[in-house]
Write a structure and sequence with these properties.
It is a single chain. The protein is α/β, with parallel strands linked by helices and about 250 residues long. Helix content is about 45%, strand content about 15%. The chain has helices at about 15-30, 40-45, 65-75, 100-120, 145-165, 195-205, 215-230, 245; strands at about 10, 30-35, 55, 80-85, 125-135, 175-180, 235-240. The mean pLDDT is about 95. The structure holds NADP nicotinamide-adenine-dinucleotide phosphate. NADP nicotinamide-adenine-dinucleotide phosphate binds next to helix 1.
């Protein structure tokens, strides 16, 4: 029997990058997956992964869209075994250039989005299921230009602790995976192609392993926390090539 045979999962922000790597690993392992994103072209491409993949448009900053997502999950999958709250956004801006608009958007997607995605989907997680968030090693390091982003992900780390306590009576584990520099199409930042190359170089130089990680390396950690780490809850697993501890 395949590793995820019969399992049902939701991956928010599953159209590219790390979320897509998680979706692919789940589907290859036999799971049925509902993924979300906003871009219609990427959603259509994700549907090509096969009949056990459902791609649904949902902007996590809009509560009505999140409520409608929960209805779709209920009718499409029913109860689920696993939710990966992965949607995220970062704009590289030093404090003096951070506007109210960029601050609000960062917290809207990463913090409010993660909170209310969980609020609407947690009731659909079966007893004994699990939830894994994607935070960021930025929430414990001082990377210049990432103050709003770092704060938005530090809040998610706090949500993990409290949600873990609140969902424990239902046997639901809640954890996070905290990536360092990972080679996704966006590198996790809203930036020009040139800025992204520079950002990647900074990552390769400052990461003790002297390289960036792959989406598949993060996906392996997400699925470990989601399915294998059955005696672990309220934890944040760092996947960063040693950046936080040795950098
Ligand atoms: N890459 C890194 O180095 C890195 C490092 C640490 C942490 N992270 C975090 O890891 C997660 C995944 O990063 P990634 O690099 O794989 O990201 P990515 O490739 O940019 O993918 C982000 C996903 O989120 C979706 N998304 C973005 N804004 C959204 C919104 N408002 N509503 C709904 N969906 C939205 C995107 O879909 P659409 O494009 O269709 O909107 C996409 O599916 C994020 O939380 C990020 O902050 C990344």
């Amino acid at each position: 029997m395949s590793r995820f045979e019969g399992k049902k999962a939701v991956v928010s922000g599953g159209t590219h990058g790390m979320g897509l790597a998680v979706v692919k690993a789940l589907v290859e392992g036999g799971a049925e997956v509902l993924l979300t994103g906003r871009d219609e072209t990427k959603l259509a491409a994700a549907k090509e992964l096969g009949p056990r993949v459902h791609a649904v448009r949902c902007d996590v900053t809009k509560l009505d869209e999140l409520r409608s997502l929960a209805d779709t999950v209920k009718t499409t999958l029913g109860e689920v075994d696993f939710v990966h709250v992965n949607t995220g956004y970062a704009k590289l801006l030093p404090m003096e250039l951070t506007t109210e608009e960029s601050f609000d958007w960062t917290f809207g997607v990463n913090t409010k989005g993660a909170y209310f995605t969980t609020q609407v989907l947690a009731p659909l997680v079966r007893e004994g299921g699990s939830i894994v968030f994607t935070t960021s090693v930025a929430n414990i390091t001082g990377i210049p230009g990432m103050s709003a982003y770092a704060g938005s992900k530090a809040a998610v780390r706090s949500f993990v602790k409290v949600f873990a306590a609140e969902l424990l009576p239902r046997g639901i584990r809640v954890n996070a995976v905290s990536p360092g520099f990972i080679d996704t199409p966006s590198m996790g930042v809203d930036a020009s192609a040139e800025e992204r190359v520079q950002f990647q170089q900074v990552g390769d130089d400052t990461t003790p392993m002297k390289r960036h990680g792959s989406p598949e390396e993060v996906a392996a950690a997400v699925l470990f926390m989601g399915f294998d780490a059955t005696f672990t809850t309220a934890e944040e697993l760092i996947i960063d090539g040693g950046l936080a501890e040795l950098g």
